[in-house]
Structure formats: structure tokens, C-alpha cells
């Protein structure tokens, strides 16, 4: 199929888009890694305030996506020079500024002021993140409809992001977010991110044949997303993936406590890092290699079943104290079979392609925005449930390993292994009913390619007529 529907990305476009992963790694990754630790552990925000803030964050986080997606789809290209890239070029520096604001506390003791700072800054950060990353994601499916090209770009972006994140992870994993040294680093990260966002906006391109596509009102666009069975089925899987992501690095500081208690004296930080990144990307590579033969849907189903079974088995095994050190072997397996996450974004693009076949216009901004509206609540739901589990099992906020009760480690095991296994298993139900695979996918891609040929022909005709008119004048 790849040979027939070849829309190869130029090297400029491929690496230009992939460069966007560097600010994502520096800003979004660091935020996810440290914001819970900063507000919940370091500043000691009361659990009730923390959860209340997550509820507000959940609402803002969800609503801003379709609004900004619609704004992007309807942006006047003649006035601003682009529909998408203008938001990366000019929104990037503002996003970097909101990132800086998170790490400068307005109070160290007053719970009300800490709460206000917490809510305002994380909501501002997410709104600007949405503005920039939504259009960054939307540019790729416009530049190419080739599934393998999209997967390749996604993988290259992941590799670039990892090259940046690896030293950052080692550097700040155990750093106190409420320290001057950490804050100076955040200022540097914001500056570097701004530069790479500018490069992304410079080297990516929006294809001219889509610039005159019909625009729709917000209501019309939202209705279109809800008429797409492909989109609605995938929402369930995407919701689950967001939930799982929210339980990941944001709670690294408590996972590290468990690992230190299980294997004292071991360099748990470096070993965790090696498993999370190296084994994780090995899983990505295997999934990408299998994609031409199995297809994305089949890979997710098969690897997802392995992930669910291995996570539950690992949880049950380490309930027995003598077997707790086996957690490392289990983490290698569960991380590897989670490599199907590389397809999370590219599979979403297929619903956008299908919508263009049905309606004649590309609406990446709205589809990605409504997807976020329906699935971003999971980003807050994860921390809400995780915080409730930690509190219920007696976790001591900001407490070192020595002061944590045994019950806290049981809670961490449930939060880290059992809960994700259940959610990952449920997510496979949605993928099972995902309609675009095998011959249906081939048929859709044939229609899409024919439509794009027609759009290119119309654009060429318009340009020829314009050139003739200029010559006559």
C-alpha cells in the first residue's frame, strides 16, 4: 500500500516537523515529570486542594482544545501567511513564558495562595501548550497521507525528543523543583524551546491545495466529528492512553521510592531510565517493523493483551516480598510490549483522512481539538485517582523512604501496575471495533488519493489562469 500511495516527506519537512519534539521534550515532559511533585510534595498542597485544582484543570484542559482547533482551521491564510504555523511561530514564546511561571511560587506557606498559583499557572500552561502542539500535530497529516511516512516522522520526533530528554531526565529527576538551581534550568529550557519552535515553523510547510478548503462553523465541525464512527471508537482508546500517561512520569518520585525499597543499593534512577527509554524505543521499533505486515490495529490488539497480562502477573508476583526484586524483569517486559503507543497519534489521523473523503475538506484542528475535549479529562482523572490511592494507603507527603508505612508501598503497586493493567485491557475493546483496517483502509486511501489529485489539478488550473491574466495586463 505504501508504494501505491506515496506522499514522501521532503527531508526539510521531515526533520522540520521532528524538531518540534525538542520543545515538547523540554517543556511538556519536564512539566509532566515535576509539576505534581512541586505542588503536592514540595509545596505541600492539601490533597483536597490538589484534587479541586485538577477538576478545574480538567475542564479548562478539555474546553480549550476544540476552540483553538476551530480557530486554527478558520485562520485566514492570506492575512497571516498560514493556518497552522503562525501559531507555532508567535505562540511558542508565550508558551515558554507560561512554563516559567509555574516554577516561581507565590507563597511557600499559605495554602490558598499556593492553590491559586497552582490552578492559574497549570491552566495557562496547558492553554498555550494546546495552541502550539495542536497545530504541530495537525501539520503532519496535511503534509503527507502516507501511513509509513507519518509513522516515520512520529518515530524521528520521538528519537529527537529522547536525545534531549535523556540528559535532562538524569539531571533533574532527583532535583528539588522548589530550588533556585532548578528554576535557572527552567529559564534556559524555555529559551531553547523558543528557538526550536521557530525552526519548526520555518521548515514545515502547509500544502497549498488545502488552503482554500471550505471552512465550517464550530457547531458544524463538532457535529462532523460525532458522525464519524472511526473517530468515536478511537476516543475510548485515546482516553485510556491519556489516563495511562498521566500515571507515568508525573508520579516518578513515588515509583522511585518503591524501587529503592525493593532493591536498596542499586542505582534505581539509571536503571529505570534505561528501561523507560531504551526498552521503550526498542518496542516502538519492533512495532514499526511489524506494521506493514500486521497493520496498526492488529499490533495494538496483540501487544496490548501481552501488556495487560504481564502487568497483572507482575503485580501479583511482587505482592510476595521475596519476589519483589523481580519487578525489574517485569518492567522490561511491560515497557517493551507497550511500544504500540507509537501508533497513538497516527491512528487518529486516519479519522481526519476519512472525514476529508466524505466532506471534501481537511479539518485537522477541529478533529484533534474535539479528541482532546473528550479525552483530556483523563489527564486530570489519573492524578485524582492516584492521589486518592496514595492518601488512602497512608503515603506521607514529602516523606523520605524511611518514614513511609508499608501500606503506602502497596498503594504504589496498585497505582503503578494493577490500575494501568485494567485500563489498558479496557482500551483494547475500542481498538477491536476500530473500522479502518485491511481492505476498508485500502479503499479509503484510494478515494483520498483521487481527491487530492483533483485538488492539485484545480490549484494548477487556478494558478495558470492567474498567470495568463497577469500576462494580458
- Number of helix segments? 19
CATH architecture: Up-down Bundle
Strands, total number:
0
Mean of pLDDT: 87
Question: What is the CA-based Rg, rounded?
Answer: 23 Å
Largest sheet: none
CATH homologous superfamily identity? MFS general substrate transporter like domains
* Beta fraction: under 5%
Write the element-wise H/E pattern from the N-terminal end onward. Answer: HHHHHHHHHHHHHHHHHHH
Q: How far is the first residue's CA from the last residue's CA?
A: 47 Å
Bulk shape: globular
The tally of domains stands at 1
CATH class wording: Mainly Alpha
- State the share of residues found in helices, binned by percent: over 70%
CATH topology name: Growth Hormone, Chain: A
Unreliable spans are 1-6
- By secondary-structure content and strand pairing, the structural class works out as mainly alpha
Task: Briefly summarize what is shown.
The protein is mostly helical and 473 residues long. It is built from 19 helices and no strands.
Explain how this protein is built.
With about 475 residues, the chain is an all-alpha fold. It has one domain: Growth Hormone, Chain: A. Helix 1 packs parallel to helix 7, helix 3 runs antiparallel to helix 16 and helix 12 runs antiparallel to helix 13.
Amino acid at each position: 500500500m505504501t508504494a501505491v500511495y506515496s506522499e514522501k516527506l521532503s527531508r526539510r519537512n521531515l526533520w522540520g516537523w521532528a524538531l518540534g519534539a525538542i520543545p515538547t521534550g523540554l517543556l511538556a515532559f519536564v512539566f509532566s515529570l515535576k509539576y505534581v511533585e512541586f505542588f503536592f510534595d514540595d509545596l505541600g498542597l492539601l490533597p483536597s486542594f490538589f484534587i479541586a485544582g485538577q477538576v478545574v484543570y480538567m475542564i479548562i484542559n478539555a474546553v480549550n482544545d476544540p476552540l483553538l482547533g476551530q480557530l486554527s482551521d478558520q485562520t485566514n491564510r492570506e492575512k497571516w501567511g498560514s493556518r497552522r504555523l503562525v501559531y507555532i511561530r508567535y505562540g511558542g514564546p508565550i508558551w515558554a513564558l507560561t512554563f516559567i511561571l509555574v516554577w516561581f511560587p507565590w507563597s511557600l506557606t499559605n495554602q490558598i495562595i499556593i492553590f491559586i498559583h497552582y490552578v492559574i499557572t497549570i491552566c495557562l500552561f496547558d492553554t498555550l501548550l494546546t495552541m502550539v502542539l495542536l497545530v504541530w500535530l495537525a501539520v503532519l497529516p496535511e503534509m503527507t497521507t502516507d501511513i509509513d511516512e507519518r509513522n516515520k516522522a512520529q518515530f524521528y520526533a520521538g528519537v529527537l525528543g529522547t536525545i534531549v530528554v535523556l540528559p535532562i531526565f538524569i539531571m533533574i529527576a532527583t532535583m528539588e523543583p522548589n530550588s533556585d538551581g532548578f528554576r535557572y534550568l527552567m529559564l534556559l529550557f524555555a529559551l531553547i524551546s523558543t528557538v526550536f519552535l521557530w525552526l519548526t515553523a520555518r521548515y514545515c510547510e502547509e500544502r497549498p491545495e488545502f488552503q482554500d478548503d471550505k471552512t465550517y462553523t464550530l457547531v458544524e465541525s463538532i457535529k462532523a466529528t460525532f458522525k464519524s464512527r472511526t473517530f468515536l471508537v478511537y476516543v475510548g482508546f485515546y482516553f485510556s492512553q491519556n489516563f495511562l500517561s498521566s500515571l507515568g512520569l508525573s508520579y516518578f518520585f513515588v515509583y522511585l521510592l518503591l524501587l529503592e525499597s525493593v532493591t536498596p543499593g542499586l542505582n534505581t534512577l539509571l536503571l529505570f531510565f534505561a528501561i523507560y527509554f531504551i526498552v521503550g524505543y526498542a518496542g516502538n521499533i519492533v512495532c514499526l517493523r511489524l506494521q506493514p505486515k500486521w497493520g496498526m490495529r492488529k499490533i495494538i490488539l496483540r501487544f496490548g493483551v501481552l501488556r495487560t497480562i504481564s502487568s497483572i502477573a507482575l503485580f501479583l508476583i511482587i505482592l510476595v516480598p521475596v519476589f519483589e526484586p523481580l519487578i525489574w524483569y517485569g518492567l522490561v517486559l511491560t515497557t517493551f510490549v507497550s511500544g504500540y503507543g507509537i501508533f497513538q497519534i497516527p491512528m487518529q489521523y486516519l479519522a481526519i483522512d476519512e472525514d476529508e473523503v466524505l466532506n471534501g475538506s481537511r479539518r485537522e484542528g477541529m478533529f484533534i481539538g474535539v479528541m482532546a475535549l473528550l479525552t483530556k479529562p483523563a489527564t486530570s482523572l489519573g492524578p485524582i485517582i492516584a492521589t486518592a490511592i496514595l492518601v488512602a494507603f497512608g503515603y506521607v507527603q514529602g516523606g523520605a523512604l524511611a518514614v513511609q508505612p508499608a501500606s503506602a508501598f502497596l498503594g504504589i503497586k496498585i497505582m503503578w501496575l494493577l490500575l494501568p493493567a485494567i485500563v489498558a485491557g479496557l482500551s483494547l475493546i475500542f481498538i477491536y471495533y476500530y473500522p479502518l483496517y485491511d481492505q476498508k483502509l485500502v479503499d479509503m486511501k484510494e478515494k483520498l488519493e483521487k481527491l487530492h489529485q483533483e485538488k492539485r489539478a484545480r490549484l494548477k488550473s487556478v494558478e495558470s489562469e492567474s498567470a495568463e491574466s497577469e500576462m494580458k495586463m
